[in-house]
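hiii, so i know i said id send this last week but things got crazy w the move. better late than never?? heres the sequnce for the chain we talked about at the cafe, plus the structure i predicted for it. fair warning i was half asleep when i ran it
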Amino acid sequence: YFLLKLPIGRNQFFVIISGFLLGLIIDIFLNTPGMNAAATTIMAAFRKPVINLFYDREIYDEYVPGINTAAAPFVRFTIFMVLTHLTLLFFIESFTLFNLLNTVIRIISSSIISILLILALDGLTYRKKAGEQ
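okay and structure toks below
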């Protein structure tokens, strides 16, 4: 969620380092040796090209992607990034194509739950501007 909500014009180096540190923290707490760090770093590296795919090029640098600012592009962006991250993570974890069906089921089910939680959290964090009812 953190990497999805960073402003679009954020420095790419900052995004990649943040992705690595976020993945490393997850790895430390889940005792997974570098799997989350690798998947999150790759996701952070592909963030800018994916944003250019789903958002207009004329948006300003401090624009923060969100469901309340541009719902359709944010939903597509979220789905793509979550699917990419979980696909990388589960294939790094299994490191084989032996049980492919089980891995695909895990990717799809985890993606659905993650996407729903991200969209719900983003909808809950919306703050009305002063003067709105």
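btw The two ends are 28 Å apart (CA to CA). thought thatd interest u
miss u guys!!
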